Structures are given as structure tokens and as C-alpha cells.
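A favour, since you know our C-alpha cells better than I do. Could you add the entry underneath, on a fresh line?
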Amino acid sequence: MSRFAPTVFWVAVGVLGYVYLAYPLVLRAWAAVSRRPVLSSAYEPRVCLLVAANDEAGVIAKKLENSIALDYPSNLLDVLVASDGSHDATNVIVGRYAPRVQLLAFEGRRGKMSAINDAMSVITADIVVLSDANTFLRRDAVRKLVQNFADPDVGAVSGDVVLTGERAALAGSEDLYYRYERHLQRLESDIGSLVGVDGALYAIRRSLFEPPPADTILDDMAIPMAVLRGGHRIVFEAEALADEVGSGSSTEEFWRKVRVAAGAVQFLVRADSGIPWHRRQAIFTLVSHKALRWMSPAFGTMALLSSLVLSPTSSFFAWVLAAECGIMALGVAGCIPALRRATIVAVPHYFCLVQAAAAVGFLRGIAGRQPVAWRRFARATEQPT
């Protein structure tokens, strides 16, 4: 074991270094020599704002008020709520906004993908904007998304959701993580295409929609893949903004990321995913930004175990092991809310939370143990300003 431990360690560190450090540099270099601008312009096609909802009585009225106040011609903007087996007052509240808002009420909770598939079958608008019930769009968000479809090569557009609220004192480290993610998305959009979208705010040409299997966990990965298969781009629109109250606890954030990782693994391993292997840049992005990121807990474990084996005979690896243990200790310390407010604790805590969630999600995805329906947590009812 000790014979191969140095190789295992450096391979693991090399992969992690590539995923988190080298890949962004590769994107920057690529964008510097081969940028693909979007030919956006003023454009006003018919749009349908689709909201898939389940038991959202606490926020749905504010969501609909937000939707009908958007800066887009009302005669060109349909609003449709696909209520997935709601048992609270969601359907009654939505009904009060008829005929400005259309309600599709389904019996029994089947999952977001089923609700979207059925709703898309009745939508006639050219562009469909998908948004969550607790995501509040800025007034010009639809207009900013839609202007990109003036370019015939663009098939889908991802917006930028700004997280608000206390977020269990995760705000600083979480915001740092999402700034990093948005930076990657901008660069990927510049060189060609994203491979996924922000599920809380994105738009797609209705003609390019292909219904994924009903048991699909991640609509924001499965739906865009059809766009790529059709030879179109998925781009990022940084000025299409929306506000959403972030996770109220570390537990909620953990299970949210577990679901994302499990859904990603489900998509990658199933035979009918329809991965567009002919799109070289998209596959490069899928592997570098997504697949290797979701596998990073395995590489981190390899680095830890190999340094543990080598530490008794190497002062270098003894220091490495101490650093690894220190990061994990700070990550665990962050479980105490008072300590988590310190940056030196918050950043390792969030990193460890993400890694642990990715590991659990990977295993649940491989085993097929992740439920299609989202595990509900108490939802903030106050609309961000």
C-alpha cells in the first residue's frame, strides 16, 4: 500500500487542483482566444411563465403578484401554475388570479418533472420561462432572458438567482461559492454553452422541449440536454436577476445538495439520458465542471488515506495530514452556529458540507434511493425586497 500511496496522493490532488483551480484558468484562456458572443437584441415573443408548485400557500400569492407586475407586455405574457398534488390553499389562491393566471391542478404529488411535462404539453407560447414559487423575479428579468433568443443559435438561457436572508449564518461562504459558480458559467457561456441551468430561473424555446422521464430528479439538467442535442446553445444572462431566500439551516442546505448530486448521478448513469456526445465543448464542460466535481469526495478521501499511510515516514505528509485534519475539524466546528459566524470556520464548514453532501448524493444516486419529490422544509414567507 505504501508503495503506491505517493502516486495515489498526487493523482488525487492533481484532479482536485484541476477541478477547482486549473479548469477556471483553462476557461479564461479559451475565452480569450475564442469567444462566441450572443447576438441579443430587443425581442418580444409570446412567453409563458411556468411555476411548478406543491403546497406553496405561504408564498404563491406574492409570487403571482410579482409575476403579473413584470416589465413585459401582458398580452404576450401568460402565467401558468402547475400544482403538483397541493393539499393546502395553493389552488384556491391561484384561482383568485384567474383569468390572468391559469391553473393546472394535478391529483397526487408526482414530482416536479411530471408537472412540467404535463404543463408543457398545453403551453403554446414560443418561449417558456420556468421559475420556482419562492423565487421573485426582478421587473426586467423576463425581458433580459428573452432578448437572447433573438440569436437563432440560442435554445435556452439561465438567469442569476440572488440568495437572501440569514441562511443559518452560511451567507458569506455560500455567497463566495456562488460567485465562483457564476464566474464559471459566464466563461462557459462565452466559449459556447452551459450544460445545465439554474432551476429557479431559466428559459427555453418551447419547440426544443423534449419531455424527460417522469422520475427525473434534476429538470435543470435533463431539459437543457435536449437543447444541446438539437445543436443549440445554452447561455448565461447575468442581468436576468431574481431573489430567493436561501436555506434556513445547514440541514436544509445539506439535503438540497444531496438531491442535486443524486440527480446528477441518476442522469449520468441512465441509458436514456441522451448525453450529446457530439458536442465537444459541452462534454468537456460536463466532465470538468460537473462529473469530476461530484466525484471530488472520492479524490479527497484518496488524498487523506494516502497521506495517513505516508505520514509516519515523511514530515511533508505529516504536515499535509495535519492540514487535512485541521480543515475537517473546522468543518465540524461549524456545526455550532456561534462558531460558524467566523470566516475561518464558515468557509471550511461550507466546503465540508458540500463534500459530504456530494458523497451522500453520489451513493444515493448510484443506488437509486433518492426520491423524486423534494423533501420539504419550512419555507420563508417574506418576499425579498
Remarks:
- Strands lie at 47-53, 77-84, 101-106, 127-131, 135-137, 154-164, 201-205, 233-245.
- The longest strand covers residues 233-245.
- Residues 167 and 247 are 5 Å apart (CA to CA).
